[in-house]
Recover the amino acids of this structure.
């Protein structure tokens, strides 16, 4: 599907490199079909040597020779990069943004032209090819465009298509920010192990492996988490005693509130961006 496509990464930071690594290692396309841009020339040199891809410091030239453009820059500078490259974008190209918290409406207002736009929300687990990624499409993106975007991000994890763009804020609050919640939980479990007498290294290993194993069990069996929980909690046993304590502490409610708070914050940031670009006559 991607074999004959020229793919351009505008910005090759951590997430951009994770995607390049996924595509090259999976042999999804030939390295010479990928071009990476960045302002950091030593970084580009390292990327070129490691993955054998093309590199450039010229965004406009890189875009002109590419079929799929992936904007992998920080949200704060996305608008200026879009303005710089707008004249090189047309309906012949698929435009993908992975800038966190930037709605398609903002991108459309910046570019002010009809384009095949796709917004993607991966997460930090892309670095280990286990990202939970959501994909949303603009009004001019075709099913084939969505399939191509999905193919790219499936090389660094698993992806899901979201019909309504408005739900991308919820995705940001759940899976985009979710690894941070899990890191906190793992850290707390490790602290608990240390309190009970385990070494720090053993406690951290056991808590990390426990979270990974539980997630794999959920994914592989496709059982409801409540059913799996019931299989672990024997009458009068240790697990049910621990769960009782977690429920008393409001773990379930706290996690729900955390996702809700992150979703609201994502929405606020997106609304602020839309407002600033609407008021700015440059965009």
């Amino acid at each position: 599907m991607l074999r004959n496509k020229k793919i351009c990464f505008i910005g090759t930071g951590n997430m951009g490199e994770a995607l390049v690594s996924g595509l090259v290692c999976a042999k999804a396309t030939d390295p010479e079909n990928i071009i990476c841009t960045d302002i950091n020339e030593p970084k580009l040199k390292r990327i070129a040597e490691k993955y054998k891809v093309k590199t450039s410091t010229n965004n406009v030239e890189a875009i002109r020779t590419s079929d799929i453009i992936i904007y992998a820059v920080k949200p704060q500078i996305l608008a200026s990069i879009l303005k710089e490259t707008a004249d090189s974008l047309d309906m012949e190209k698929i435009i993908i943004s992975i800038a966190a918290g930037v709605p398609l409406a903002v991108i459309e207002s910046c570019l002010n032209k009809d384009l095949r736009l796709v917004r993607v929300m991966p997460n930090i687990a892309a670095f280990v090819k286990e990202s939970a990624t959501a994909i949303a499409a603009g009004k001019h993106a075709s099913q084939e465009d969505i399939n191509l975007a999905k193919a790219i991000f499936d090389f660094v994890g698993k992806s899901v298509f979201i019909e309504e763009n408005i739900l991308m804020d919820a995705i940001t609050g759940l899976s985009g920010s979710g690894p941070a919640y899990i890191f906190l939980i793992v850290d707390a479990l490790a602290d608990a192990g240390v309190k009970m007498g385990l070494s720090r290294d053993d406690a951290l290993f056991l808590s990390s492996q426990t979270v990974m194993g539980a997630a794999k069990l959920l994914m592989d069996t496709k059982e409801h988490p409540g059913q799996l929980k019931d299989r672990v909690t024997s009458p009068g046993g240790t697990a049910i005693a621990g769960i009782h304590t977690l429920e008393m502490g409001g773990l379930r409610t706290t996690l729900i509130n955390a996702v809700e708070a992150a979703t609201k914050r994502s929405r606020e940031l997106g609304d602020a961006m839309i407002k600033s670009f609407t008021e700015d006559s440059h965009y």
Q: What stands out?
A: The chain has a mean pLDDT of 93.
